[in-house]
Design goal:
By secondary structure, the chain is of the alpha+beta class. The chain is 47% helix and 14% strand. The protein has three domains: 32-183, Roll (Ubiquitin-like (UB roll)); 191-247 and 255-441 and 458-583, Creatine Kinase, Chain A, domain 2 (2-Layer Sandwich), CATH 3.30.590.10; 599-721, Four Helix Bundle (Hemerythrin (Met), subunit A) (Up-down Bundle), CATH 1.20.120.1560. It has 23 helices and 21 strands. Strands 10, 11, 12, 13, 14, 15, 16, 17, 20 and 21 form a ten-stranded mixed beta sheet that branches. Strands 1, 2, 3, 6, 7, 8 and 9 form a seven-stranded mixed beta sheet that branches. Strands 4-5 form a two-stranded antiparallel ribbon. Strand 11 (286-291) and strand 12 form a beta hairpin.
Amino acid sequence: MSGSSSRRQAVEAVTSYTAPTTDFIESLGELFGRNIFGPTEMKNRLPKQIYKSVIATIDEGAPLDPSIADAVASAMRDWALEMGASHYAHVFYPLTGLTAEKHDSFLEPEGDSASLAQFSGKTLIQGEPDGSSFPNGGIRSTFEARGYTGWDVTSPAYILENPNGNTLCIPTVFISWTGEALDKKTPLLRSQQAMSKQASRVLKLFGHTDVDTVVSYAGAEQEYFLVDRHFYFSRPDLMASGRTLFGAKPSKGQEFDDHYFGAIPERVLAYMIEVDRELFKQGILAKTRHNEVAPGQFEIAPLFEKANLAHDHQQLMMTTLKKVAQRYGMECLLHEKPFKGVNGSGKHVNFSIGNNNQGNLLNPGDTPHDNAQFLVFCAAIIRSVHMYGGLLRAVVASASNDHRLGANEAPPAIISIFLGDQLADLFDQIAKGTITGSKTGSSLEVGVDTLPAFKADPGDRNRTSPFAFTGNRFEFRAPGSSQSISGPMVAVNTIMADSLEYIADTLDADVAAGTDFNTAVQSLLQKIILEHGAVVFNGDGYSEEWQQEAATRGLLNLKTTVDSLEQFNEPAIIEVLDKHKVLSPRELHSRYEVYLEQYILSIAVESKETLEIARTKILPAALRYQGELAQSAANLVSVGVDFDKGPLEQATTAVAGLTAAIAVLDKAVNTHGGETPAEEAAFARDTLIPAMLEVREETDKLEWIVADDLWPLPTYQEMLYIL
């Protein structure tokens, strides 16, 4: 089938597509949490004391009592069988950033028949998948296959549904035979524990005697694109790399701002409704859905929950988005930049810290100037981001996110904090040593009598800031749409633990030396803002002036993944992660190796795919068009008719340009990039990417020249607007 024929068939299939309809019997309330073995189900099935023991581990971080595992496993198995499960799976999160599963049957052979396995506590608590094929960054040799999964009781087991049978999924950590973390989950749990320890110390200094376990909460806004699967399968670049390596900008993109928050297309809305229902079954509160800025782009946002659970739910959400899209004949694209020339996709990670007794520790209240406890925790974040901005940049680094950071659609690569007018003014007062009060909000006059009075916040939001205070939480806007939220939350928890430890140690020492506690707090706040206030910036992060000013403030501007990942080798970052027992130097270096390799492999795949498509699809189509023009010219000349040489000359020039660019990329693809991973990564950045871009530039010129019936790939106009 020719490329042009497949394009026509794709358009015909899209325009005649009818979305499946489903009769939803259960209400959302009845659906919520139906597929999870959560507290409600455990309370109904477990002896009272065992239930209390499990809940203490989940809510208070108490050690898991191994003696209760058999009872929990038995109840979990009975529930799973009632839910139609035939298998169970330890689900874990390797360094690929994806979700991994190893399925085992509940049935075991017994003589000439099969019987139900007991599914013991030992089986629940620990599994042993083959760990040899997962990235490990040198922690283990290829021939060493043993790895362990361990039950994470803080994340509920759930049922994975399939038309042919269900599976009990048990969230776990994944470690090596020597106990080192091979996954995204283990460091997250460690960092949560480290932060809680130091936050509790600070709260006790403020006189709290009922300090509950402090946890970080997260809510990740997930952006994504949808394209019809006919188009998707006609684009080898989308299939291989998740983004279009070619594509001329359409005549209409997002210039009119008409897609953002617009009416959701019927097919897409049907898809969103089913996504919500699937997520509700898993106890995931998907709160918000809407059109995003770019055509074909959308967003879903869940409510806040504990960061470790938010991580697991975020991974499940990405899987669900892709799975349900296929039912509606669409493909969900989670790549940060699937289409050039329109906004890419991020995953804004909103976070706060708190507990049941003291509440949200990042809530300033109505009079933040009187809320010393809030100011201390806010100051801890200012110190953390200033001292460890390089770590925050490194954990969001990837080949795909490089396309997004620094463009006028996402925060710059410079990590700074936006506090808003109210807090910025307050910390400015603290720096000067005199606090007179806080800016307050005002009422807005709309000029319509029938409308209620609007209350304005004391400060606006700043979408150009990578780390912004948004009222009672911070929003880390730099993570990419395809990334796990583990890295960002591990970094935030760890650097917060470090700053809170510094604060607790300082206040302890000052009070022990006879300083009044309130005086000690004021002195500490002033010291922090004077030493670390350079990281606070409330202006336009997209401006060239900020790039220059940030340099004078000493802030890092790490524009690429290759630059950013070197932060994992910085002594201060190695020390802080090791000191708080989140990642040992060896575990951290393994991540440096793995992420560098992922970058190299990503660019290698893209460069080879660019070469193949340009050679086998674009160039042949261009040559056919050139040949048709030449034949037409010859026919006209043969009968003595003048003809316009312009189109033929334009096509000839474009074909020559593409041929030359292909030759350069071919040479680069077949050149050894270096002796070390760092050298290979630098070669990919400095040689392969520019060569790919040159091929793309020449190809995109041809898309505007070659006859439409000869063009072999679905166009941006088709993919972005036909849904």
